[in-house]
């Protein structure tokens, strides 16, 4: 069995910002209706890759337009947040959503963005770990006292708790299989991008650790992978949509590296054109039959139990994205239930 979620950068499509947000919210309504398990949005700054620079603000609107689907950031970039202010936002969102919030956490995959906000990228890993500890501590106690290198709090009285106890489900972007030794004991959901072999190593390691811990196999957390996916009535139509939309998305993802005259660190994972992306197995555009065959192969290759589908990107039209989502929900998803 595979679960299917949507991963969304909310990258600029060229529309005015208000129309852009409204179209995304309309698509989110359709994503819920089409049966996707969850919706995850990224956090990015100073780049067209991320128009929802404050994930909590977009999520507050998304909560009002949906009723069942789980929603959350993937990830909150912890070095760029005040950890206790973020804790308060999480509690608000979880209660406003009726317990549908998921919380992705990380140091941020694009450290070049941290510089724009005055955060030393070299400090980001240590800041992430300290902020994560504060966040988890606040879920557990009624008063937070914390002395650290970056954060110091005295007598912070916890006035709110999330609806989901002890906290909403946590997600983490796993860079390699070694990260599983931290995630599995905590029951944290993981997701990777890029090569299927890496996802296979993470998946196998997670299951080994889960079994070693004596945990119930039926309660295994989500082990996910992200992939660009476009569905249309025919392979040719889907490929035309993907080939037209992908370049704008790629320009957005490497925007700050180009601006800084730096080497794009994800070039092996995200080549410049969609045909190349398909050739290395990191995406698919095709008819429902083609996409089903691709996902069956991906499942066999990686052993993941969740695919986070990137189905809205670049300057793809609302109509093309909506058609793709409907076809996926109606003609692809049931084959894996």
Describe this entry's structure for a reader.
It contains twelve helices and twelve strands. The protein is an alpha/beta fold and 337 residues long. It folds into two domains: 1-67 and 222-337, TIM Barrel, CATH 3.20.20; 75-173, no CATH class. The longest helix has 19 residues, at 235-253. It is globular, with a radius of gyration of 19 Å. The mean pLDDT is 97.
Q: What is the topological layout?
A:
Layout: E1 3-8, H1 17-33, E2 38-41, H2 55-65, E3 70-73, E4 76-77, H3 83-96, E5 103-106, H4 111-116, H5 124-140, E6 143-147, E7 152-157, E8 170-173, H6 180-183, E9 189-192, H7 196-212, E10 223-231, H8 235-253, H9 255-259, H10 274-279, E11 283-286, H11 288-302, E12 306-310, H12 318-332
Parallel strand pairs: 1-2, 1-12, 2-3, 4-5, 5-8, 8-9, 9-10, 10-11, 10-12
Antiparallel strand pairs: 6-7
Helix pairs in contact: 1-2, 1-12, 2-3, 3-5, 11-12
Supply the key terms.
two-stranded antiparallel sheet; alpha/beta; 17% strand; TIM Barrel; 337 residues; 2 domains; ten-stranded parallel sheet
Q: CATH homologous superfamily name of the largest domain?
A: Luciferase-like domain
Number of strands: 12
Please name the CATH architecture of the largest domain: Alpha-Beta Barrel
What form results from the Cα inertia axes?
globular
């Amino acid at each position: 069995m595979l679960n299917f979620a949507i991963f969304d950068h909310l990258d600029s499509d060229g529309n005015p910002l208000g129309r852009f947000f409204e179209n995304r919210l309309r698509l989110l309504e359709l994503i819920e209706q089409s049966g996707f398990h969850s919706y995850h949005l990224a956090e990015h700054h100073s780049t067209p890759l991320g128009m929802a620079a404050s994930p909590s603000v977009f999520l507050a609107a998304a909560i009002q337009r949906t009723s069942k689907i789980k929603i959350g950031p993937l990830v909150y970039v912890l070095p760029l947040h005040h950890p206790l202010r973020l804790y308060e936002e999480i509690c608000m969102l979880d209660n406003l959503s009726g317990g549908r919030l998921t919380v992705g956490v990380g140091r941020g995959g694009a450290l070049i963005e941290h510089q724009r906000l005055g955060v030393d990228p070299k400090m980001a890993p240590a800041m992430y770990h300290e902020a994560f500890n504060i966040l988890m501590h606040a879920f557990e106690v009624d008063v937070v006292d914390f002395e650290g290198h970056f954060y110091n709090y005295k007598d912070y009285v916890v006035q709110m708790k999330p609806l989901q106890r002890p906290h909403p489900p946590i997600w983490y972007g796993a860079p390699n299989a070694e990260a599983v030794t931290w995630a599995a004991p905590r029951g944290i959901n993981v997701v990777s991008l890029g090569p299927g072999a890496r996802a296979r190593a993470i998946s196998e390691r997670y299951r080994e650790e889960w079994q070693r811990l004596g945990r119930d196999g039926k309660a295994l957390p989500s082990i996910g992978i992200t992939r660009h996916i476009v569905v249309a009535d025919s392979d040719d139509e889907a490929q035309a949509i993907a080939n037209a939309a992908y370049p704008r998305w790629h320009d957005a993802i490497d925007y700050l590296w180009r601006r800084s005259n730096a080497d794009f660190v994800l070039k092996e994972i995200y080549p410049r054109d969609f045909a190349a992306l398909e050739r290395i197995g990191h995406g698919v555009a095709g008819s429902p039959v083609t996409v089903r065959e691709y996902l069956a192969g991906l499942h066999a290759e990686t052993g993941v139990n969740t695919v986070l589908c990137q189905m809205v990107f670049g300057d793809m039209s609302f109509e093309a994205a909506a058609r793709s989502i409907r076809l996926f929900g109606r003609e692809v998803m049931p084959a894996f239930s």
